[in-house]
Amino acid sequence: MKFMVLMYADPAATASMTPAQRADVFARHEALHADLAATGEMLNGAGLAFPADTMTLRWQQDAAPAVVEGPIAAAASAATESVTAYYVLECENAERAHEIAARVLDFHVVAVEVRPIHDWFGMGDAAPEAQG
Fold first, then answer.
1. d(C-alpha 66, C-alpha 59), whole Å
2. Residue 47 and residue 109: Cα distance in Å, rounded?
3. What is the pLDDT of residues 99-129, one digit of tens each?
4. What are phi and psi of 67, to 5 degrees?
5. What is the spatial distance between Cα 16 and Cα 26, in angstroms, rounded to a whole number?
6. Which of 42, 44, 62, 111 is most exposed, with minimal Cβ within 10 Å?
7. Which residues form the YCII-related domain (predicted)?
8. This model's pTM is above 0.85
9. Distances in whole angstroms, Cα of residue 23 to Cα of each of 29, 30, 89, 122
10. Could you give the domains of the chain?
């Protein structure tokens, strides 16, 4: 099964990390990357730019997409956390994905969302839209 692991952090907390805190975070992620490379469970992953560098495009019927500065969550919530990084994992089950995700929680990654990926590309007639 494939899973998207979305890491949420407060950009202000991330920007104010000390060099020692930043080094600790990088060391822990490097150790996790090495572990996942050994098991073959990590398919992809990356850090993301700050929300201030984000633009959201929103569909509008009979009009060009609306472009808004900032992440989509900023308009929908007063929460200060935003997606800061992601991993794409291929694991045996959801429990294993949760186990991996728990390793990134700390003072700066305050929430982690684990979401199954519907990998329908290349499935032809098995894709849900083809079952209509």
1. 7
2. 12
3. 999 999 988 888 999 999 997 766 555 555 5
4. -110, 125
5. 15
6. 62
7. 1-120
8. no
9. 10, 10, 24, 41
10. 2-118 (3.30.70.1060)
Half-sphere exposure of 104 (CA within 13 A, CB side): 26
Sequence length of the chain is 132
Q: Which two tokens stand for residue 83?
A: 């997606």
> What's the whole-number mean pLDDT along residues 52-67?
86
Distance CA 77, CA 51 (A): 14
Q: Residue 14 and residue 107: Cα distance in Å, rounded?
A: 9
The mean pLDDT of 32-42, rounded to a whole number, is: 95
> CA triplet 127, 129, 132: central angle to 5 degrees?
115
Query: Phi first, then psi: what are they for 52, rounded to 5°?
Result: -60, -20
